[in-house]
């Protein structure tokens, strides 16, 4: 009798045919579901991100593109606008170009012989020769009724003045008054409802802040009816500059904004569009150069305002006094002679008899070390103090006489 041998497998390893069938069916379902999901996603993406050209309106598409470009250009324009561009836009309509005519006497080459009897019989009394000289500069309107500020060296001696405005109109201007010492002049045109510049406070100027110089360099305003603009920073404040005889260039703002011939009298403006100074002089770096090298100076607007108000009220600033003394710088030799410890100050070399200084008790060999509270180091310092004073004011001096300090006061009366 044969015995059947049956091998038993563990339960976990027993294969169930029904289970295999179910797994195959689930795989087919998952694959089909995935295909349907991909197709549905493609339809959604195509509908919302790639609209059919057949169903779109071409004009609508063009308008959408143009609108997008305009929006982009607007964003670019806004990003290019700065405080500088806004200040220029604000101030530019107030700038004017100034043209002047001045009659000057020409030196007669034979005038050296006018007192010589021999040559006089040939040339006689020759009349003075005169010539009309033209010049140009810049200015800026400071009131709606047509007051204009500029430099005295632009318009102070002019016999005829005309200004060109940004609307292209050229009108005659009247000189209300000017002051040679401070180099400020006030003009007036017969116009109303004008744009005008806002005068700021130069005491608030910050070294290093952005500034803008506007004006008429080389007469370009006259050709284009608009000012030229240069930009720089404030290099220094409260500067003194030695230039042009008796002019008192103090409280000056130094800038590296390019200033050239014709810019004189134009405004120096801060980034808020406020005038903080009047462009006046430049250093050119040598006798054979006349262009900007980045060292320009503007009269502080607070000083300009003070001068302007006096001119507007009186037509001029009274400075018709003569202090009546002469001075000299102190070198080592003079310091040793006067037994001075240092060469600082100026020594009085002459006092005119009967003059203001003579009546006040000033004497030769007095050493002036202070004037109206300002330390006097050299001749230019005392000239800056005296030449900036008005008739009727009092000059207070601190001097050294015979080794002792002494104070002297003199009232500057007309004479």
Keywords:
415 residues, alpha+beta, Thrombin, subunit H, Pdz3 Domain, seven-stranded antiparallel β-sheet, 20 strands, disordered N terminus
Characterize this entry briefly.
With 415 residues, the protein is of the alpha+beta class. The protein contains ten helices and 20 strands. Strand 4 and strand 5 form a beta hairpin.
Describe the structure.
There is one protein chain. The protein has helices spanning 17-49, 58-80, 83-91, 117-123, 152-155, 220-224, 301-314, 332-337, 356-360, 379-387, and strands spanning 95-106, 129-141, 147-150, 160-164, 170-172, 174-179, 184-188, 198-199, 210-215, 228-241, 249-255, 267-270, 274-282, 296-300, 325-329, 346-351, 367-371, 374-375, 394-401, 404-411. With 415 residues, the protein is α+β, with helices and mostly antiparallel strands. The strands form 3 sheets. Strands 5-4-1-2-3-7-6 form a 7-stranded antiparallel beta sheet. It has a 6-stranded antiparallel β-barrel with strand order 9-10-11-14-13-12. A hairpin with a 7-residue loop joins strand 10 and strand 11 (249-255).
């Amino acid at each position: 009798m044969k015995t059947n041998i049956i091998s038993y497998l563990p339960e976990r390893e027993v294969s169930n045919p029904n289970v295999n069938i179910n797994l195959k069916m689930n795989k087919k379902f998952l694959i089909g579901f995935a295909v349907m999901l991909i197709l549905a996603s493609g339809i959604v993406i195509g509908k919302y991100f790639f609209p059919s050209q057949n169903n779109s309106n071409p004009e609508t598409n063009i308008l959408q593109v143009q609108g997008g470009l305009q929006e982009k250009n607007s964003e670019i324009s806004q990003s290019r606008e700065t405080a500088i561009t806004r200040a220029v836009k604000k101030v530019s309509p107030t700038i004017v170009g100034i043209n002047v005519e001045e009659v000057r006497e020409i030196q007669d080459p034979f005038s050296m012989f006018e007192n010589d009897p021999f040559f006089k019989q040939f040339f006689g009394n020759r009349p003075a020769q005169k010539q009309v000289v033209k010049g140009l500069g810049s200015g800026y309107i400071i009131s709606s009724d047509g007051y204009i500020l500029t430099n005295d060296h632009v318009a102070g001696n002019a016999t005829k003045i005309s200004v060109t405005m940004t609307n292209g109109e050229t009108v005659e201007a009247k000189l209300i008054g000017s002051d040679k010492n401070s180099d400020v002049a006030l003009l007036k045109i017969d116009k109303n409802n004008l744009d005008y510049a806002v005068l700021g406070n130069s005491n608030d100027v910050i070294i290093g802040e952005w500034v803008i110089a506007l004006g008429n360099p080389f007469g370009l305003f006259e050709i284009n009816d608009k000012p030229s603009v240069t930009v720089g920073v404030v290099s220094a404040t409260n500067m003194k500059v030695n230039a042009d005889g008796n002019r008192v260039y103090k409280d000056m703002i130094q800038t590296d904004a390019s200033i050239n011939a014709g810019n004189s009298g134009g405004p120096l403006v801060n980034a808020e569009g406020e005038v903080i100074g009047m462009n006046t002089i430049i250093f050119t770096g040598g006798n054979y150069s006349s262009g900007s090298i980045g060292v320009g100076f503007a009269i502080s607007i607070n000083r300009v305002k003070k001068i302007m108000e006096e001119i507007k009220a009186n037509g001029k600033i009274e400075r018709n006094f003569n202090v009546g003394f002469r001075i000299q710088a102190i070198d080592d030799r003079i310091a040793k002679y006067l037994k001075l410890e240092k060469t600082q100050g100026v020594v009085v070399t002459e006092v005119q008899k009967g003059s203001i200084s003579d009546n006040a008790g000033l004497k030769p060999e007095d050493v002036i070390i202070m004037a109206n509270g300002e330390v006097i180091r050299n001749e230019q310092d005392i000239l800056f103090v005296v030449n900036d004073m008005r008739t009727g004011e009092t000059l207070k001096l601190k001097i050294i006489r015979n080794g002792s300090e002494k104070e002297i006061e003199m009232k500057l009366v007309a004479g």
